[in-house]
């Protein structure tokens, strides 16, 4: 009822909507897929064990009945643990990331590849030592295992996906959408979405005029930016589509993007013209309307998950292995000047959410008594120990804790303070695009450019970060990490 009341507060017409907000709906759909995968994988492995029994060496297991074979402690343990373990591969594949924006072909491909990887893992973990009379039976076992995992898992997923499509077609489910714009182009887009709503599930609940555009009398509910932000925060809006007037300056769209990033709602734009903004963003083909997603980087879902796994593993290892160095540096910082060992400062991160970054203190405690300031290598505010820390980037080491917490990533655009972000955006509105991803301890901008001493240099470094966003991958991250290690050992941190 909270959802309905929140819409009524702004006189927004609503229908019999069972999808009560984006986060809840995605969570429930994800749970359905996970539960179904667990059951179907268990069934697939059980069927495989029946084939496994008949393909085994006669002297190994055939003296047992099939019932006795399936009741063996080893087989029962595998039957319980294997389906649970395989969920890790399903998660890593990115299948659960966004259960509502996936094509049928993509679903088949992900399931097929996941089943193959799981079959290979099971074979080398469990089956390679099974007594087999001939090597060719190993290939037969692999083929049966792969087929079972794919067939049963895909059938379960297909049933859930087909049910979701029926809900969209029957208008039981829909995505509450707000269009930013009141130009003729925006009106045409709203009309197209409403006409296609039985297939796509769009429900346009209102529009927000863009200042300076040609006004028109729209039948849609008129919303202000403040109202739209509040609706986004309470879960009443599932997505925002920006439809600028033809010829509208790109900076205007970037200003809107800067404002709505913090809501956490997906923001899309109609590619009415090719430009810097649309050419560097991955295209998300939503059946009939090829909107460009402005809130997601050009990275596959499985790579996004792998990136997070690498972040957690490497940062956890670093915190343990480097603990003696942490202790030595803490003593050195404490000895160099009075004040705390760890310096905490608020930065702006993913989707413009503020967080506290942690560093070994390299400056005097009164370094910013006159307000936020940038520094250079000859800055008198830097302590003697601080110069050493900054030269080898040792002052950044506590940020492994930020990575482990999820505030940051190992590789990503460097996080800035709100004070400097406002200055950067005035000169380079496209800077707001860096908030598509988590900030990083290191970045291509830091490797190629280094520390910025002025706002102009911060803008120049941002260009490298934008190129990184267009080419994000696990392989690129590893290259940047290797260059960062080289920078640390050569002492080129300043």
If you had to describe this structure to a student in words, what would you say it looks like?
53% of the residues lie in helices and 9% in strands. With 494 residues, the chain is α/β, with parallel strands linked by helices. The protein has a 5-stranded mixed β-sheet with strand order 2-1-3-4-5, with helices on both faces. Helix 2 packs across helix 4 (73-92), helix 4 packs antiparallel against helix 5 and helix 13 runs antiparallel to helix 14 (384-391). It is flat and about 85 Å long. Residues 1-24 and 283-288 have low confidence and may be disordered.
Question: What is shown here, in short?
Answer:
The protein is an alpha/beta fold and 494 residues long. The protein contains 19 helices and nine strands.
Average pLDDT: 83
What is the distance, rounded to the nearest whole angstrom, between the alpha carbons of the first and last residues?
56 Å
| Sequence of strands across the biggest β-sheet | 2-1-3-4-5
**Secondary structure tally, helices:** 19
- Low-pLDDT stretches are 1-24, 283-288
Beta-strand residue percentage: 5-15%
Molecular shape: flat
| Helix/strand class | alpha/beta
Radius of gyration: 27 Å
* Element-by-element helix/strand order: HHHHHHEHHEHEHEHEHHEEHHEHEHHH
Annotation, overall tally of beta strands:
9
Q: Could you give a short account of the major beta sheet?
A: 5 strands, mixed
What portion of residues is helical? 40-55%
SSE order and pairing:
Layout: H1 2-8, H2 22-55, H3 66-70, H4 73-92, H5 104-127, H6 136-169, E1 175-180, H7 184-195, H8 197-200, E2 202-208, H9 225-233, E3 239-242, H10 250-260, E4 267-269, H11 276-279, E5 292-293, H12 301-321, H13 323-336, E6 342-348, E7 354-360, H14 384-391, H15 399-405, E8 409-411, H16 418-427, E9 440-442, H17 444-448, H18 455-470, H19 474-490
Parallel strand pairs: 1-2, 1-3, 3-4, 8-9
Antiparallel strand pairs: 4-5, 6-7
Helix pairs in contact: 2-4, 2-6, 4-5, 5-6, 12-15, 13-14, 16-18
């Amino acid at each position: 009822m909270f959802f309905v009341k929140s819409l009524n507060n702004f006189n927004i017409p609503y229908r019999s909507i069972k999808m009560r907000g984006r986060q809840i709906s995605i969570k429930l759909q994800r749970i359905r897929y996970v539960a179904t995968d667990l059951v179907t994988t268990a069934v697939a492995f059980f069927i495989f064990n029946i084939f496994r029994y008949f393909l085994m060496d006669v002297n190994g297991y055939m003296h047992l009945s099939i019932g006795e074979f399936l009741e063996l402690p080893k087989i029962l343990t595998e039957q319980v643990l294997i389906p649970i373990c395989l969920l890790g591969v399903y998660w890593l594949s990115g299948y659960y990331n966004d259960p509502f924006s996936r094509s049928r072909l993509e679903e088949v491909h992900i399931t097929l590849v996941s089943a193959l990887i799981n079959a290979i893992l099971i074979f080398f973990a469990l089956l390679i030592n099974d007594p087999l009379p001939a090597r060719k039976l190993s290939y037969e076992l692999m083929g049966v295992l792969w087929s079972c995992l794919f067939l049963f898992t895909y059938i379960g997923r297909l049933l859930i996906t087909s049910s979701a499509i029926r809900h969209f077609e029957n208008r039981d489910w829909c995505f509450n959408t707000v269009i930013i714009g009141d130009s003729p182009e925006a009106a045409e887009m709203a009309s197209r979405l409403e006409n296609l709503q039985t297939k796509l599930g769009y429900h346009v609940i209102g529009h927000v005029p863009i200042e300076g555009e040609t006004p028109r009398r729209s039948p849609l509910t008129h919303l202000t930016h403040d109202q739209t932000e509040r609706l986004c925060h309470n879960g009443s809006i599932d997505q925002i589509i920006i439809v600028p007037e033809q010829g509208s300056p790109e900076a205007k769209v970037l200003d809107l993007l800067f404002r709505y990033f913090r809501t956490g709602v997906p923001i899309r734009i109609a590619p009415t013209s090719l430009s810097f903004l649309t050419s560097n963003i991955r295209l998300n083909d939503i059946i009939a309307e090829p909107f460009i997603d402005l809130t997601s980087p050009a990275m596959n879902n499985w790579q996004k998950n792998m990136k997070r796994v690498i972040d957690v593993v490497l940062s956890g290892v670093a915190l343990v292995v480097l603990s003696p160095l942490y202790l030595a540096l803490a003593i050195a910082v404490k000895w160099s000047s009075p004040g705390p060992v760890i310096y905490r400062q608020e930065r702006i991160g993913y989707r413009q959410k503020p967080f506290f970054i942690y560093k070994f203190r390299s400056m005097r405690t009164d370094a910013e008594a006159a307000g936020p300031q940038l520094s250079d290598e000859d800055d008198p505010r830097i302590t003697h120990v601080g110069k050493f820390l900054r030269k080898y980037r040792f002052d950044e080491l506590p940020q492994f804790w930020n990575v482990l917490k999820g505030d940051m990533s190992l590789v990503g655009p460097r996080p800035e303070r709100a004070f400097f972000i406002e200055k950067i955006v005035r000169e380079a509105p496209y800077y707001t695009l860096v908030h598509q991803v988590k900030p990083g301890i290191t970045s291509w901008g830091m490797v190629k450019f280094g520390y910025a001493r002025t706002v102009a240099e911060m803008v120049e470094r941002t260009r490298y970060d934008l190129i990184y966003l267009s080419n994000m991958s696990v392989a690129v991250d590893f290259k940047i990490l290797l260059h960062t290690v080289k920078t640390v050992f050569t002492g080129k941190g300043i």
